[in-house]
Amino acid sequence: MKNWVLFFLALTWVLAGPVSAQTGALEKIRKQGAITMGYVEGSAPFSFTDAGKQPQGYSVDLCREIASGIRAQLGLASLETRWVSLTIQNRLEAVKSGRVDIECSTTTWTLSRQADVDFSLITFVDGGSILTRVESEAGRLSAFNGKRIAVITGTTTEKALRNSLASRSIKAEVVTVRTRAAGLQLLDQRKVEGFASDRIVLIGVVLTSKTQGAFKLLDEDFSVEPYALALPRGDAEYRLAVNRALARLYRTGDIQRIYDRWLGKLGPPSVLLSAAYFIQGLAE
Which of 13, 23, 228, 255 has its CA 20 to 30 A from that of 248? Predict the structure, then answer.
């Protein structure tokens, strides 16, 4: 009797294997005929909404390419893309809980975050910097000793800023905000002397601001921020499908078209970003 029980349990385990293998994101996408993508508004030029309230930006275009690749891989005649607006604070939880299948904005890949979600290949390399007013004499982080710096709460930039200030013994007051618009407003109203965020995002903030001529960036970065797309943790087949689409963009050079559309006016890709594209252009 014992042997029959063991045999039954073993048979149940074997049969359960294929079923569990088909419960991942790809199978869900195939059954629904739709993929759900999250984005964060106000993160131009990576993710934002246009006048028609449609998601746009560098990261959004990458996700559209991924959706096209998944549609082809699954052999679907069409694939609906459902966009969900997220915040910087809830974007990773939305991926972890399954609310979205992928998050398309400016998320920095860190090991602590990887305990909750997986990540795609690196999509961009940026650095943390500080926006200040043009009349300010500040050119480096050390100039903010005794001053106030706004930063978005819960971001890798906040952690990097605090660590950089502590390691250099700079006594600056860190003022936390929830959005980039709030940080820029404090700076515009002279309630803080600087606003810290990713350099390329700060450039986007300035370019879309009505008072863009009033601001400037520091001459130095205080961190390195490798962006990647957040994915459900432990879903190897789905992660492979996402990375296959990105690698094709990098390998064929089609990434340049997307870069030029959203970032070209800022100059060519940096040496670090060009190297990331080259190294990650993996062969099939």
Answer: 23
Q: Is the dihedral of CA 114, 123, 106, 184 positive or negative?
A: positive
Q: Based on the domain organization, do 138 and 107 belong to the same domain?
A: no
Q: At residue 190, what are phi and psi to the nearest 5 degrees? A: 60, 30
* CB 78, CB 212: distance < 8 Å: no
Q: Is 256 exposed, middle or buried (0-12, 13-18, 19+ CB in 10 A)?
A: middle
**Shared-domain flag, residues 146 and 189:** yes
- How do residues 7-22 score in pLDDT, each as one tens digit? 333 433 434 444 334 4
The DSSP 8-state label assigned to residue 107 in this structure reads P
- Domain of residue 197: give its range: 127-224
Write the single-letter amino acid at 155. Answer: T
The model's pTM? 0.81
Instruction: Write out the two tokens for 64.
Output: 């559209």
User: What share of the chain has pLDDT > 90, as a percent?
Assistant: 78
From 231, 196, 225, select the one nearest 46 (Cα to Cα). 225
